[in-house]
Amino acid sequence: MAKKLVIKVTAGADAPERCSQAFTVAAVAVASGVEVSLWLTGESSWFALPGRAAQFELPHAAPLPDLIDSILAGGRITLCTQCAARREITEKDVLEGVRIAGAQVFVSESMADGTQALVY
């Protein structure tokens, strides 16, 4: 089993099941003691902003704000630099604990020994 899990979520409200699955897997991994790095890209970028996750609804799925809180409590959430720039999101706009970083950091994390990467 990988010691670290890097998850890139590209979907947001445009593909709610795929989006929810990524956050759910990340939260379960954190709860299981796995080191998790969740990357927000594309439409999921909006969930880096306060209040946005509360607007997301999917029947029979855990509330997105709860999943985000769980991930931040034991893992890391990163917003893609380019995705943030395209949406005019800055570091002062994002939830506490969310960082903004680029492809070089994603590749570095993904290629580290003992790491499994997933893309949703």
The ordered H/E elements are EHEHEHEHE
How much helix is in the residues? Answer: 25-40%
Major sheet description: 5 strands, parallel
Average residue-wise pLDDT: 97
Number of DSSP strand runs: 5
Backbone CA Rg: 13 Å
Q: Structural class of the secondary elements?
A: alpha/beta
Q: What order do the strands of the largest sheet run in, or round the barrel if closed?
A: 4-3-2-1-5
Give the N-to-C terminal Cα separation.
20 Å
* Shape, per Cα inertia axes: globular
Q: Which spans have pLDDT < 50 for at least 5 consecutive residues?
A: none
Q: What keyword list fits this structure?
A:
single chain, 120 residues, 35% helix, alpha/beta, five-stranded parallel beta sheet, 4 helices
General description of the model:
This protein is of the alpha/beta class and 120 residues long. Helices cover 35% and strands 22% of the residues. It contains four helices and five strands; from the N terminus they run βαβαβαβαβ. The protein has a five-stranded parallel beta sheet with strand order 4-3-2-1-5, sandwiched between helices. α1 runs parallel beside α2. The longest helix has 16 residues.
What is the structure about, briefly put?
The protein has 120 residues and is of the alpha/beta class.
Give the SSE map.
Blueprint: E1 4-9, H1 16-31, E2 35-40, H2 64-74, E3 76-80, H3 81-86, E4 98-101, H4 103-111, E5 115-119
Parallel strand pairs: 1-2, 1-5, 2-3, 3-4
